[in-house]
Amino acid sequence: MNSMNPINSRNTRNSINSINAFKMRKYLLFVVIGLVLSFAGFTSTSTAGPDDGFTKEDRERLIRLETTVSVGFKQIDKRFEQIDKRFEFIQNLMIGMIGVFGGLCGVFVGLLLWDRKTFKEKAKEEAIKEIEEQRLKPLEDAIKEFAEVEPRLHEILKKFHIL
Question: Alpha carbon of 6 to those of 2, 9, 17, 20: distances in Å?
């Protein structure tokens, strides 16, 4: 420990001294602020008697000011009530609009489903009719013609009431 570098030990002592000096300044600042505040507290307390510096005119002004302020607050309260009523109306209007929009969406979806069902049925009927007319009729004619030549096929077609 004796072989410590003298430069490092000097730097360490200086930093410790500067930290202690900073703490001392901080405490001194708190003491000064406390004294100033306590002095300000002692000087601001008034021990005035009945003659506290207000004249009759000052008291009348304060009364007028108080009535004016109370009237102003009443007007502000009325205005807030009006604004509350408007917000309530707007809220009810929005709820109504959302209800109407939801109803229209429901009707639209119902219409789509109904239209799809009827379109599907019509398309099915048309497809069956087209297959019967264009595909099955010529095939049936060909089988009947072949049945005239083939007696066994002729019997089968008679059995199923096709001839």
Answer: 10, 5, 16, 21
Q: What 3 state SS string does 98-149 have?
A: HHHHHHHHHHHHHHHHHHHHHHHHHHHHHHHHHHHHHHHHHHHHHHHHHHHH
Phi-psi region of 141 (alpha: psi -120 to 50; beta: other; left: phi over 0): alpha
Angle value at C-alpha 80, between 79 and 83, nearest 5 degrees: 90
The verdict on pTM exceeding 0.70 is no
Kindly state the average pLDDT of the residues 9-13.
59
With a CB cutoff of 8 Å and minimum separation 6, the contacts of 148 are: 154
